[in-house]
Amino acid sequence: MIADPDRALVAALLSALTSAPLLAPLTGAAVFDQPPAVPAYPYLLIGRTENQPVGGRAPDGVAGAVAHVLTLTALSRFEGTEEARAIAAAVRATLHNSKLPLDGWNLVSLRVVFVDIYHGADGITVLGLIRVRAVTEPLAQT
Fold first, then answer.
1. Which residues of the chain have pLDDT under 50?
2. Domain interval for residue 110
3. pTM of the model
C-alpha cells in the first residue's frame, strides 16, 4: 500500500495515460511527472498537485477522504492549436469519470473540470492546461 494517496493517484494516472489508446498516437506515450531534460514534442506533463483532507481519520490514524486537484499540461510545437486540443480531448476521454485502480486507496471520483489551450510566451509552444479533480479514500481494512 502506498501511504500517500497523492503518490498513488499520480502513479495510477501515469499508468493510465501512458497506455491510453487515444493518447498514445498523439504523444507516443510521452507522459511525465517532471519535465524531461531534453523534451521531444508533443508530450504530457503531470505538474502541480494539491490535496486536502475532506474526511476525518479512521480509528487506526489513517487519513480519511482526500480531495486532489492536479494540473496536467500538454505541450505541443505543432503549428496551431490542433494538436494540443486533440491531446486535451484524449486526456478527458481517458480520465473523466474513470475508475482507476490505486495502490491502497479507493478512487471515489475523477473528473476533468477545466481545459485551457493557449500559446506559450515563446510564441512557438502551444500549451493545453487540463485540470483534474479527484477524491480518494483509504481501502477498508479487513
1. 142
2. 5-138
3. 0.90
